[in-house]
Amino acid sequence: MKTHMNITKPGRFYIPIDRRRFFKSMAAATAGFTVAGSLAEALTLTPPQTPGPFYPDNIKLDKDNDLLVLNDNLTAAVGAITYVSGRVLDSSGSPIRGALVELWQTDNNGAYIHTLGAGGRPRDPYFQGFGQYLTGAGGGYRFRTIKAGLYPGRTRHLHWGITIPGQLSRFTTQTYWSGEPQNSTDGVLNGISNAEERASVILTFTPVPSTTIGEVQTSWDIVMGLTPMDPTYPGGSLVVAGALVPGPVGGNPRYRLTLPAYTTYTYEIYGNPTMADLAWAALPFSLTQTGVIDRNKHTATSNGTLNLYVEAKSVKGFYYVSFRVPGANTGTP
Q1: Radius of gyration of the chain (CA)
Q2: Are residues 212 and 71 part of one domain?
Q3: What residues contact residue 186 under an 8 Å CB cut-off, 6+ apart?
Q4: For 55-83, how does the pLDDT look when each residue is reduced to its tens digit (9 = 90+)?
């Protein structure tokens, strides 16, 4: 019977349990992501699939791409440690920069982090349940999670949401584990009529080399049939340097990010690249210098200067502030 485990620092970078080591390992693990133009004609479009009813309705402040560890807890979620990495590409094989990749799934007990998503099954309090990633120039993404638990009526699966620049709503799909007995009877999986597209979302997981704790990994390129369009932001760049300011009494100092805000635009903060220069981790923030850090996105209600405050220092000396244009997805798919 599986039990929760305390996290210890591993001796090798490719079996990381410590979160800092995990992020450092991703740079090495994903180096060399390229797509040759000559392969473009062989690409199979990723099929759209239902988001399901359990897109999280209580997303944690910690929504980075490491679902195994919630915040800075020393206890990891129960389950077989699983890595999923790849790229977000357009139909010609070119990487898409600035794609928002969201992952949500069940914990080891088959429960989602949704009000109605447990079905009487106990939830793992240490499992993040949802993560997101913002791709850089190479289109790369990477998640560390667990093998999704089963629940009645479905085979084992992961849910994905992808929003590319210029897109107002998520593209949603799902991926599956090869060899699962329920695959042959799962209505969502077998509802994909195109055989190549159906095969493209059934993933084979292989052991992580030299691991001693049963970690597995897979690679999956998300191929979009949509054309990314860089939206024009009124007012200039959203690469912002943080100004060090005092935090609350007895608390940590903070970094103030100042930017021009526009009504009904929604803002998120990313910092501390998790794959060298290729991608960014989401950061929670506060709207005031000494207030509670209580959000990971903010929709402006008026035009003007907006100050956002984070505790995490950016290793590059600046933060990337992502924006969603008015009307873009800010809630459930």
Answers
A1: 20
A2: yes
A3: 154, 155, 157, 176
A4: 999 888 989 899 998 887 889 999 999 99
